Amino acid sequence: MFNLKIKAFAALFLSFAVCTGVHAGISASANSAMLEWEGSYAAGSTVLDENCPVTVKSELLTFNINEFPEQYYSDNDEDRFLNYGGRVTARYDFYNPADYDVEMSLAFPFGYKPRYVDFYEDCDDTVKYSVTANGEKVLTKLRHTFALWDFETDVDVGRLRDGFKEDGFYTENLPVYVYRFRISGIALGSDYYVQTELGINDLEGRIILSNANGYTNNNGCTVSWAVRNNDEIALYSVGKPMSEDEFGFRFFYYGKNHNKKYIDGKAERGKDGETTFKQLALTYREEGSVVSETDWCNAVTDALLLKEDRGGYADYYSLNVGASLMRWYEYSLSIPAGGSLINEVTAPLYPHINGYYEPSIYSYEYLLSPAKGWAEFGSLEVKINTPYFMTENPFGFKRTDYGYRYLSDGLPDGELKFTLCEVENPKRTNTGCGMAVFIIIPLMLFFGLAAAVVTGLVVLVVFIVKNSKSKRQ
After folding, report:
1. Which of 349, 321, 299 is nearest to 110 (CA)?
2. Given CA atoms 345, 346, 347, 353 in this order, what sign does their dihedral have?
3. Amino acid 157: pLDDT
């Protein structure tokens, strides 16, 4: 009877607590859409030749921003995306002070395609770019390099190579050994995922790639996959083959307290294969791609080199560099001894969009650092033709009747950045805390109610025990 009373009161108290929690009103942001979109930066041309004597007498940057891009372009919006007209033109006045003619090679980085374009890997927006010399169109070559988001002139320019990157390990004909396994024998049901892991101790002289979903590194590496019966997993040993005793797969799932529970399972080895690093690197490159085989292979090599601190393991998806490619135009100009030349480069503008403001604000970045490669740099004038308001102005632009203007004797430090909006004082309407509040407050309520339940049960037990004792007495 004593236990029954406790259970009855506990059930009543818990049901009250649960009902109270269910009906506690939590107000969250109704705007669950994405509020920030990454754009891309624009940049000036940089000279690729060492000791080039050509100087920049002046540079005129003209931004034409009479419209903002849309916040999202779907697969069916390619025409609207290509019709978006925001652009920047860099006009260089070059001078050759040498007593000989100069043929110089230049590279113009024009960044990534913006992330608010759903089809950015397939859409060809190169029609929006142009390069001219004294008003005549210049022949350009489209190039690609692996790049992280932050542009570093020396690093990124150094990744432009005419041939395959030879770094001492990766070569075009470096052998790659392929091992495939079919999973079977898991007794937990066909829809139940478990983990299988493989410990690899000797990583010297090779890199392991796989389609694994996790790894740990401890002198060697342990690679793990989430698998079901009949799944196929693969390993790629780049540089040298694996030995028979390295294929000791273990199967497990995580039980209570995240403890590993080992179970039976089989990894049946299929037919081994062998290929070259070049063929492996080209796995994700589509036939007919605008990215050359050389540029794609070099981008994969640079991506894998960033993984070397992982102790010799890289995930297989590092081979898919399509979304991490910096685009460049490479071209040549000829300037006679003591002569001058006007070079113009035009590119579209893809700003970063911040939808946490009403109306949205648009941030632009133009890279000035590539211009540091010139022998001398004269004056810089920046014009922004726009009807919009500048809400962030770190460079000190002056307001004009056509928009904004900036003048500098010499190349200023840092990259050129500014932010525009349809109104002068946009209001921040969504701090991004809505989802956090939606998660945190229920947790607080839950743990608060849990504490109340525990406290109530303790008081209840003490009361019943005391009452029971008094009755027995």
Report:
1. 349
2. positive
3. 86
